[in-house]
Amino acid sequence: MRWATFDCFGTLVDWRHGIRTGADLIAPGRGERLLAAYNRHEAAVQAETPASRYRHVLAEALRRACADEEVALGADDASVLATTLPYWPVFPDVGAELSALRAAGWRLALLTNCDRDLIAETRRRLPVPFDAVVTSEDVGAYKPSDAHFEAFRCTYEPTTWVHVAQSYFHDMVPAHRLDIPRVWINRQGDPPGDEKVVQQVQRDLGGLLAAVERA
Fold this sequence. Notes:
By secondary structure, the chain is an alpha/beta fold. The chain has helices at about 15-25, 30-50, 55-70, 80-85, 95-105, 115-125, 135-140, 145-155, 170-175, 210-215, and strands at about 1-5, 105-110, 130-135, 160-165, 180-185, 200. A six-stranded parallel sheet has the order 3-2-1-4-5-6, sandwiched between helices.
């Protein structure tokens, strides 16, 4: 049983676009700065409240970003990211590359720092079906915790398993720690990181089947 697991937001769905445009709805022209500020806070919020819903993480990280940027929030403005998340765009390379994996006999799963209801809405926009999903709501933790990976391993008992993700911090590091073969989709052109952590690296999903099979 061959499995390729994926992080969703940042890897398959354009997370940065979603945060930036959502923030722009409440602070026109400030989306890029609020995205940068949001990035500084999200991991800390997840670490502080590992059992909280992702809706809470989105709202609290946005509140802190707005405080940094001196943006005043209305009563329900902080909910804008959870409200718009189901409409965040899917990267254009997802359909063809994941279809090639399925055609070659790989099963696909999502290991996501998200709530069940939010990922269900997102799956409706993904151009290929997934065979399994493990959410933060399921495991009571956020990556880079090992919880998603351990839950997937115990439930599906993969004989061959490769993890594919954009986030070095949230995904590559724990996959390396657990000795799971991995492909880093470095969409932002981040620094290369530890060569022991990164086995295969590419800028997008192009040629993903070959990268997964090499890993």
